[in-house]
UniProtKB/TrEMBL annotation:
It comes from the Bacteria. One of its GO terms (molecular function) is agmatine deiminase activity. InterPro entries: Peptidyl-Arg-deiminase_porph. GO terms for biological process: putrescine biosynthetic process. Keywords: Hydrolase. The keyword Hydrolase applies. SUPFAM superfamilies: Pentein (SSF55909). The lineage of its organism: Bacteria, Pseudomonadati, Pseudomonadota, Gammaproteobacteria, Lysobacterales. It comes from Pseudoxanthomonas broegbernensis. This is Agmatine deiminase. It holds the Pfam family PAD_porph. The keyword Magnesium does not apply.
Length: 343
């Protein structure tokens, strides 16, 4: 008899965090030095708690990355380099979605279209296949699914409830009804139900409202969400409507969720363009939560909210202003792998 599938929550034990080193052939080329500094700070934080698997486009890049990491006194015993020639570094969306199946795993390989064909993604769409061929998933089977879905567009509580946004899924699949999309997500991701948010967006976001920039599950039937309390801000109406809808959501057994509201940072502009700064784009590790920091007074308040939502975990701030120049943040460039993988 085949063991049932389960989509683990991000706060469950992990084996490693998967990332890809930025290089001149990626979108980071214009500001590579400051972006590399953010990646080094991120890897330093990850390796305090667990392994970091770093995709590198070629041998020269691996040598360069290793020199930079060693000079920053990174624990190289917790670093593994993985060769793969990628288009860009947004591995939350091009990377594997791993389900548990009994004592093993199933690796889901959804089609990656660079957020609806906005950018070139031919190499990134082959990432999961390449990682599987290199043995990174042990003997776990890879299931290719011809359906556009990004990891940043879905959030699970590990107990059968999925949280997502209608805008994102509808943009990817405009001909499909909500009922059709609901059924597909539940079947492929082994979920009992899907909670749909109809509001919420960030200026500068080209993912069409990924859930990981807006609202996230936390242990103990909790939801952490990005709020906006400035009526003069362009986000105010949508994020207030999102908060009101989140307040109506119920757990599988009918109880209200415990809600944690993240503060709103002051607008961050780049040559007049508003950047998508969200504290909801945090990354959960074994024993820690890495929080995007923007050099704003709200950083400290956001850290306090996350400490309340994730008791017993260290809250580590990672400077992410360089990342939001390309419309993403900490969670967007990472993908966790569950404990035990590879087998």
């Amino acid at each position: 008899m085949t063991a049932p599938l389960r989509f683990p929550a991000e706060w469950e034990p992990q084996s490693a965090i998967l990332i890809a080193w930025p290089h001149p052939g990626t979108d980071w080329a214009e500001r590579l030095a400051e972006v590399e500094d953010t990646y080094i700070a991120l890897i330093a934080a990850i390796t305090r708690f667990q392994d970091a698997w770093i995709c590198v486009a070629d041998d020269d890049l691996q040598i360069y990355a290793e020199v930079r990491l060693r000079s920053a006194r990174i624990d190289m015993g917790r670093v593994r380099f993985v060769p793969f020639d990628y288009d860009d570094t947004w591995l939350r969306d091009s990377g594997p979605i791993v389900l548990r199946q009994g004592g093993g795993f199933r690796v889901l390989d959804f089609r990656f279209t660079a957020w609806g064909g906005k950018f070139e993604a031919g190499r990134d769409d082959r990432l999961v296949e390449s990682l599987a061929a290199q043995g990174l998933f042990g003997d776990a089977p890879r299931q290719r699914i011809d359906f556009a879905l990004e990891g940043g567009g879905i959030e699970t509580d590990g107990a059968g409830t999925l949280l997502t946004t209608w805008h994102c899924l509808h943009e990817r699949h405009p001909q499909a009804s909500r009922e059709e999309l609901d059924a597909k997500l539940r079947r492929w991701l082994a979920q009992d139900r899907v909670l749909w948010l109809d509001h919420g967006y960030l200026e500068g976001d080209d993912t069409d409202a990924h859930i990981d920039t807006l609202a996230r599950f936390a242990p103990g039937d909790a939801i952490v969400f990005q709020s906006c309390d400035d009526p003069a801000d362009s986000h105010y109406r949508e994020l207030q409507a999102m908060a009101a809808q989140i307040a109506t959501l119920r757990t599988a057994d009918g109880r209200p969720y415990r809600l944690h509201s993240l503060p709103w940072p002051a607008p961050i502009l780049d040559q007049g363009r508003r950047l998508a700064a969200s504290y909801a784009n945090f990354l959960i590790l074994n024993g820690a939560v890495l929080m995007p920091a923007y050099g704003d007074p709200a950083d400290a308040r956001a850290a306090a909210v996350l400490a309340e939502a994730f008791p017993g975990r260290e809250i580590v701030q990672v400077p992410c202003r360089p990342l939001i120049w390309q419309n993403g943040s900490l969670h967007c460039i990472t993908m966790q792998l569950p404990s035990g993988l590879p087998g």
